[in-house]
Specification:
homodimer, 277 residues, alpha/beta, 9 strands
């Protein structure tokens, strides 16, 4: 692992790091904010998965999480959204290929060798992080935005032993039921929709996965709400399954970091409460 | 004035606007954050002047001021740092020409027609803002970063009737005594250093200008501190003049928005206290 940069910020250290990933076969970049802490102390960690077109940089620059993380003593980790590099296949559209890994392990060509963001987030990156940062891996939470909200929900639902807390901003709640999801999962996983269910938050809940609690914030002026995000499907799935979900709709707010940053401190505090020692 | 964009954020509206400036003869873009307020209510306003290479966008995206401004009920305005456009003269370096207006009215060719950021900030933009936003122009504060810290200090010192509160992040405190200042003021104002004094915070104080109070934050790991910023000169000037200045040095912090954002809420609260009705 190489350090790209570190900057002191909000009583902690904001770093950016890169490493050669065995999972994707490419270099991968991610950011980590570590609040000041006692020597030897291990801190809970909040993972943040980003949305379409983003790298680690978007939330690192615009997410406004550092003040809240420093206050709560929570480490914040932001991975990239796909493998990168000249030899990585891509698609001309913004919603498939680079910047659009959808947190799946692709099975279709030419994607399957490198587009393995599920394994990267579930296995390789946590192992690397545990080795290099003062994290308490028994206290992990996960959140994300849009495609990354989908990532947080599905990874959280599939790994209840690893994540004590799961939340999301404007998540894609059911790739089975939206154009972004249909396009990406057809491309990465093939047309058999049975293979998609482990990458669909609503289907995972329908198939028996559970969360002890859930916090979701969604802007009502989000121009992707009705066609792509379909928050209502998640509301129904949680109700049916008895998952105690707080799903807040915010009049006037859109899909941007102006929205995310407005509610970031709430999410950090919500996770911190659940990640207490 | 045209609205470029508005986004709901932190219980307020973050807008970006553009207008044809009579002062610079070019279109000028600026951002305004307006917290929610009662109909007819007029709010105090905090001006933020940006540093070299920046536009309105840097602080708007990375400054983390909205939560604090919404809490305090303060409007936040971020202008650009120079005229822009294909017919605006420029210099190959980052520290002169476009993005480097230094908040002066240039007297030298080819700059004098358009590089008039002093008049733009002191006269044209306030008049435009007063016309279009719910501002209480009797309650104005000003701050800024680096070159914009220089702008905030000099404009604040020259206009004590307009600004009740002045602060700065990592300001250039004396263009007379640093390479950035020497290059820019020679280029914009000519070699006669007598003409520079009204654009030099330390010289203005030496020549009799006063502030009722001053807040400055400066990172000790700022790589421009010793050659360009020279905070110590401002400390001495304030001490000699009896200006009650709080000038805080922060170990480990650098010149970036990771530093600015760490202390932004402090500055907003400090101004809000002084801008109370």
């Amino acid at each position: 692992m190489e350090q790209v940069s570190t900057n002191r910020s909000h009583g902690g250290t904001q770093g950016v790091y890169t490493h050669q990933s065995a999972t994707t076969g490419t270099p991968m970049t991610f950011s980590v904010f570590v609040p000041d802490h006692e020597p030897g102390q291990r801190l809970p960690v909040l993972w943040y998965l980003s949305g379409l077109t983003c790298t680690h940089a978007n939330v690192t620059e615009k997410g406004e999480y550092r003040a809240a993380c420093a206050r709560a003593g929570v480490i914040f980790i932001a991975p990239d959204t796909s493998p990168r590099g000249d030899d990585v296949p891509d698609d001309a559209a913004y919603d498939f290929g680079k910047g659009a890994g959808f947190y799946v392990d692709a099975t279709q060509e030419p994607w399957s060798a490198q587009f393995r963001m599920r394994s990267y987030i579930e296995q390789e990156l946590p192992a690397l992080v545990a080795q290099h940062f003062p994290v308490d891996m028994d206290r992990q939470g996960i959140t994300g935005h849009s495609m990354g909200g989908h990532g947080a929900l599905t990874i959280g639902l599939r790994n209840p032993d690893r994540f004590r807390s799961v939340s999301a901003f404007s998540p894609i709640v059911s790739p089975l039921n939206c154009p972004w999801g249909n396009k990406a999962l057809t491309g990465y996983l093939g047309p058999d929709k049975a293979a998609w269910r482990e990458y669909d938050a609503c289907a995972l809940i329908e198939d028996g996965a559970r969360l002890p609690a859930l916090l979701v914030d969604q802007g009502e002026a989000d121009n992707f709400l009705h066609e792509q995000l379909k928050t209502g499907l998640l509301v129904m799935a949680c109700r049916k399954a008895g998952i105690p979900a707080t799903i807040r709709m915010h009049p006037g707010y859109d899909h941007s970091y102006y929205f995310i940053s407005s509610f970031m401190a709430d999410h950090v505090a919500w996770h911190a409460e659940r990640l207490k020692a």
